[in-house]
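My main concern about presentation is that the manuscript never shows what a single data entry looks like. For the editor and my fellow referees, an illustration may be useful. For illustration, here is how one protein appears when written out as sequence plus structure tokens:

***
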Amino acid sequence: MFIQNIINNYLQIPGIDGMLLAMPEIFIFCSTLILMILDIFFFKEKSFKNTNKFGIFIIIIAFFLALLLPSTGVAFNGLYFVSELSTFFKLIILLSIFFVFLLSHDKADIEGIKFSEFNFLLLLSTCGMLILVSSNSFLTFFLALELQALPIYVMCALKKNDIKSAEASLKYFLLGALSSGFILFGISLIYGFVGSISFEQVSNISLKENMGINFGLILILAGVAFKISSAPFHMWAPDVYEGTPSPITFFIATAPKISILGILVYLIYRVFSGIHDNLSDLIIVLSLSSMLVGSIGAIVQKNLKRLIAYSSIAHMGFILVGMVAFSEKGLHAIMYYLIIYLFLLTGVFAIILSLQKDDKPIELISDLKGLYNDHPFISICLLIFMFSLAGIPPLSGFFGKWLVFFSAIDSGFYILAILGVLFSVISAFYYLKIIRVMFFENSDTPLNLDGNREIRFLINLSLFISVLFFALFPIFDYMILNTKI
């Protein structure tokens, strides 16, 4: 508001309010174009590292722009809006992208993605995510969704000589195009029956008895479920997670899903608030199927990143439990869960990237054999992250699950909450399997620890949040409970 008051008082520029609302996106997009020119003419020998450093700088500035600039308003003829909730999601997205840049800073070479294009694509996709959570029209929604997704398809194929990477990229692209088709068809149905693509106008229409609108909403929900890898639309996740380099896998597992959940919350809580009864059953089905497929599917996995993929499917199911209630408590539980999940995944991937076996990145769960004997501190950190993901108290993951289950119980969804707890117990089995391999099995080949200062910083930060989350609870409580949709 301070910056806005200065401009309003001293720089009477027409339309400046709208530009201020979208300043983080405008800044990232323009900075990316400038960075491309700098890379062509000035960054030659150290192209990747220079663009990576500038990328970190751009994300930090965008973070503070989103934090300090106006937190409410509508711009660009109603196509774009900013609220406290959208600002919250933008900050979490930018934080996750900051972590991606740090994880890839010195590890891109060994992962086979040491191309400056990676940094450009990451920034462009980030721009799409920020626009997505501020969409106020189905037009902005779909365009932002594609701006977010198209760079990711290319990023998955950056490891040019790897067959798994090419297969993952192709599968992700084809199924992503199919899901986009579902979303576009759903939007066309809603436009046909409502006569508008504006969220505000759609929310003012009586939608409950309109079968065409309900069918369109089902198609949109199916497409969105694909984007967050919610079962039964999860089939792409294990192969893509396995086939892509670890920094990109971490990126796919965090920022895009946070942005999709951000706009899904807005659609459910505001745009389609009149048909909660119709939506509730659909979300329950998605939640239960995700918890079932994720928890059972992870048990038989031998590849570490495939296990994380099935784990992420289960976690999407837990998050949807908080969405079923359509309550303020459920919304706050989702926000807590996303913060906790981001830091836990950051810690896990930081450890994965810091470990090497035979001068190659680790891939299998069995590669972790003897980790406690070689590197006790790292093994204890991974133990804490696994326990936290399983929901063991008093670690941060426990609070995330407790809050979403409590919100379901508070709204009368007792069976869903009980089933969620049961699936959470089942999911603990495969986390314990990793712990057993680390602590109780030995390996003839020692694991090498190659963690730079960025990796060590992320491990320590994630450990701090995971262990002391209960102490930081009042800070997060103040930040989240004062957030309005």
Q: What stands out?
A: Strands lie at 73-75, 80-82, 355-357, 360-361, 448-449.
